[in-house]
Amino acid sequence: MSVSKLAQFGIKHVAKGIGRLSTEVLESGKGSYVTTVEGRKMLDFTSGIGVTNLGHCHPAVTKAAQEQVGKLVHGQVNIAFQKPYLELIEFLVPLMPHKSLDTFFFWNSGSEAVEAAVKLARHATKKQNIIVMQGSYHGRTFGTMAMTKSKTVYGENYAPLMPGRETAPSDTAAIVIEPVLGEGGYVPPPAGYLAKVREICDKNNILLIADEVQCGFGRTGKMFAIEHWGVRPDILVMAKGIANGFPLSGIVSRKELMDLQKPGSMGGTYAGNAVSCAAGVAVAKAFQDEKILENVNERGAELLGMLETAWKDSKTGHMIFDVRGLGLMLALECQPGKGYASKIQAKCMEKDMLILTTSIYDTLRFIPPLNITKEDMAEGCRIIREAIDEVAAGEHPPETKTKGQALE
Ligand SMILES: Cc1ncc(COP(=O)(O)O)c(C=O)c1O
Questions:
Q1: Cα 39 from chain centroid?
Q2: How far is the CA of 273 from the centre of ligand 1 (A)?
Q3: Which residue minimizes the CA distance to atom 16 of ligand 1?
Q4: What is the DSSP letter of 181?
Q5: Averaged over 376-385, what is the pLDDT?
Q6: Which residues form the pocket of ligand 1, taking CB atoms under 6 Å from any ligand atom?
Q7: Burial annotation 262-273 (CB, 10 A radius, 16+ → b, else e)
Q8: Is the pLDDT of residue 399 over 80?
Q9: One Pfam family for this entry, by name (predicted)?
Q10: 3-54+291-395 adopts what CATH topology?
Q11: Substitution site in 145, 181, 240, 358 for ligand 1 pocket (most atoms within 8 Å of beta carbon)
Q12: Class of domain 59-289
């Protein structure tokens, strides 16, 4: 099929319910850039929604996966242990935000891992209900749709979902929280908030589940976001960046909780796939070898500085409601009602940058690779600032322009 027909083919044959930012057809990716089949090179500030956190095709991750493909692709978890799975645990144990988190279960997607956490919480507490936060996003499966409150679109016309609308402590198995709210708008919690949630959990025999699918694995400048507040979760959920694009997710909890589950009640055909685990080992090594967290904090400060400057600038500040976030999980929320975020996003796309909005509010989110170079960040900041300036300029057309004439 000719290159020019590929997008049309996709529009015709790929499920519309997916929805997508662009109809570009990607062919390759390297570092912070992707290249389309038509040779358009785009700076990727989405990282595939916070997944390719070490950039596209990180050489060590690619090499580890290639080598594993030649050794063992599928070592099904209910059949036997496999080496990369155990090696990955060896690398992850010292990275956990609390030493009690020592027993792992791997799955494929974030949603599945959230459901694994809910299964564990119900089983361990013998209680049913789960409390989630307003604005939460936990996935698109039946269980996680019921736990998702960031937008109505995720649950619209799919009911009945998992039941349980009001809940007393004696019926509540777990409180699930994203330590930094993701899809709901990149909102860090107020000081003391998570400690208070921990206290409520302890008092009422409720488990605290930290969903770090989006904010975990270095994204906020610490290995796990919950470390910013020194709070211990009972169950930690991780996915996305842990294998830099290979499907892998997991939960970790204390052995005494995990061992309550009956053998055979957990598992899944592809759960903890050997190639994904080998990629995960390479990711964990890269965090050690390449000072990733330092880079997150340095590049994050540069991006945040640029956004704050735009906020303070009298020419652009009137469009901005808030600038927030931690590390390289940053957001710019625009004043409501004018669609500024989508306009800025469209300008960035014209300037060859992939960038996402988020939440029901008019918000842009910035999730570049955690190892983005200083030069690529400078280029990203230049594009975003230009886009903000141009949208602001379009707001106040020069008097010489006549009606109907393009404003930009
Ligand atoms: C916090 C959070 N939890 C769960 C999920 C679901 O993960 P997945 O899309 O891999 O199922 C996401 C996805 O964006 C997420 O951000």
A1: 27
A2: 19
A3: 214
A4: B
A5: 98
A6: 49, 109-111, 114, 137-139, 178, 182-183, 211, 213-214, 239
A7: eeeebebebbbb
A8: no
A9: Aminotran_3
A10: Aspartate Aminotransferase, domain 1 (3.90.1150)
A11: 240
A12: alpha beta
